[in-house]
Design goal:
The chain is of the alpha/beta class and 337 residues long. The chain has helices at 6-14, 51-57, 62-68, 152-160, 215-224, 273-280, 286-295, 325-328, and strands at residues 24-27, 35-37, 39-43, 82-85, 88-90, 98-102, 107-111, 117-122, 125-126, 135-144, 149-150, 180-184, 192-194, 205-207, 211-212, 230-234, 238-242, 248-252, 301-302, 315-317, 334-335. Strand 6 and strand 7 form a beta hairpin.
């Protein structure tokens, strides 16, 4: 999705009409670099009735805002509260091709072929016990106006909650799959990237294994992606990088809980041998790394030895604005829903 013009966005903001998500295009960094974007600040307004609304305005996930602002109210932050919008990140350490999903950060990255950009979208993923699989696969089918045939497991779980699902939900505004779906070539084809009739579920761990997107986001992605597009799904709560100028960064997200009642703020994170090497290198400050691993703020933190810097200073103010400056600049289907 191309970014709307600044004039158009300002007009929409003045009319308080920007309620849907917008794709955010980030220029790809040069070879050897993975740092993109710029964090922003925003002051909660009287009309901001819930954190999900703010998250959609900036095309991020409420959970990511909570990671970056661990002292704010999780549902209805008080008007006047200044919050950080986590719009700076490290690209996952994967090929810059097709679709990359990092479950731990509730984000989908799309690398349009032939363009020097990456599009970043918030994502809803599989709940505990019905996890979205970690895999590398392809888009096997594009489905406009999908119908939904609940699986036997979904129907049984719904019935246990007193909800009797119909055998088939027709296409339309009340369809849980939204208006567009991308089927993945993994399993028996039961995993989709799709829209949703429950927009507040985007950015949460609530599905039966599929990946949910905001309506304008899946529409934009669906229009660009072709059958056969590579899809890589990873689960990496810790990302790290050494930039070409020598700056070292670590970005730590709360890991996905592995059992009921687990606290993702304190649960242990398994580290790779490559990360252990990064920590032990002379250019890294282990104390800063340990602090970042404990805080789990979900944004890049500078960890250079003797740097004295604990975080990136790249922060842009969007206080009292309803528009992200990052945006202003620039067939019957049986699935796991």
């Amino acid at each position: 999705m191309k970014r709307a013009s600044l004039i158009t966005l300002l007009l929409l903001g003045s009319l308080n009409a920007l309620h849907s998500a917008w794709a955010v295009d980030y220029p790809l960094p040069p070879a050897g670099s993975r740092l993109i974007g710029q964090n922003q600040t925003y002051t909660v307004q009287e009309g901001d009735n819930k954190l999900q609304t703010i998250a959609r305005r900036f095309n991020t996930a409420a959970q990511l805002i909570l990671e970056a602002n661990n002292t704010i109210a999780p549902v209805n932050p008080a008007p006047g509260t200044a919050i950080v919008i986590p719009s700076q990140m490290l690209l996952p350490d994967t090929p810059r091709e097709g679709i990359v999903v990092n479950l731990a950060e509730l984000r989908l990255y799309y690398f349009p072929p032939g363009e020097n950009i990456v599009q970043v979208y918030p994502l809803g993923i599989g709940q505990l016990g019905l996890e979205t699989p970690v895999t590398t696969t392809r888009v096997s089918q594009k489905i406009p106006n999908p119908t939904w045939t609940p699986t036997a497991g979904i129907r049984a779980r719904s019935l246990a909650q007193g909800i009797k699902l119909p055998p088939v939900v027709p296409a339309g505004p009340n369809n849980p799959l939204g208006r567009f779906a991308l089927r993945l070539g993994v399993g028996n084809g039961e995993y989709l990237i799709h829209g949703t009739s429950a927009p507040d579920s985007v950015g949460l761990r609530v599905s039966s294994g599929c990946m949910r997107m905001n309506a304008p986001d899946i529409q934009a992605l669906f229009a660009q992606v072709r059958v056969g597009t590579r899809v890589q799904i990873i689960n990496e709560p810790v990302k790290y990088a050494v930039e070409p100028d020598g700056r070292r960064y670590i970005e730590v997200h709360r890991p996905l809980a592995q059992e009921e009642g687990e606290n993702p703020q304190t649960s242990p994170i398994t580290h790779s041998a490559a990360f252990a090497s990064f920590v032990s290198q002379s250019g890294s400050d282990k104390a800063l790394i340990d602090k970042a691993l404990s805080r789990r703020a979900g944004i890049p933190v500078a960890v250079n030895a003797q740097s004295g810097a604990s975080a990136s200073t790249s922060v842009q103010s969007v206080q009292n604005s309803r528009i992200s400056d990052a945006i202003a600049e620039n067939e019957g289907e049986k699935v796991t829903q």
